[in-house]
Fold this sequence. Notes:
The protein has helices at 6-26, 32-36, 42-64, 70-93, 96-117, 129-147, 152-161, 166-190, 196-219, 225-244. By secondary structure, the chain is mainly α. The protein is globular and about 50 Å long.
Amino acid sequence: MEALSLPELLFFCLIVVLSYAIRGSAGFGGVTVPLLALILSLKIIVPVVTVLGLISSFVILKSDYRYIVWRDLWKIMPWSVFGIALGLYFFKTLDARTLAQALGAFVLAYGAYSLWATTRPGLALRLPMRAVTPAAGTLAGFVGTIFGAMAGVFFALYLDLLRFAKHEFRATVAAILFGMGVFRGAGYIAVGAFGHDALLACAAALPMMAIGIFIGNRIHANLDPLMFKRFIAIVLIVSGVPLLLR
Length: 246
């Protein structure tokens, strides 16, 4: 963090505000990691995003705690913990360049899928839950630990297949992500991921996150959901290319 130039520091602040404005307005903040990875190592970004995710999930649960569907949460959490253990191993052993390239490939694929999905609004997936639960939990734990974000897409698939109502969906996914954040945070501490730069980045990001959430809450009612999803998908695709070429 201390090595960042003034333009890079301004870019850092802008991306954190933008990401959490997106999260506050549409419940999606997946652009944080790929865009910040353009100026910072994933070894710094991932622990920071974990802390921010814990705080934002806690804010949601303060008001929506009563809507959590505990039965389905407990079904997927053991698989998520298994995925976190796998992710911690690779996070510790892989170098930052390899992690950035892997993130670039994942972001490109996810962005392309997200853009395609906006053209198929009536698409209904019919998958067996006995297969979906372990796959979604393990992938979410692994991807969330390696890349610090985007685990929510796997949980969204899991809960969408269960046909949750709006309040139950939001509360349960927030509770799952909060639980994952606790396990991931403990794991990052165990492998020494919270170094000086990560802690400094956390301190700088927290006020930017608060500003972003405030802005997001203000603009929520005026969003066109379809165009917004397409915009995010394009941002992910564009941001994935430089990561892949690093």
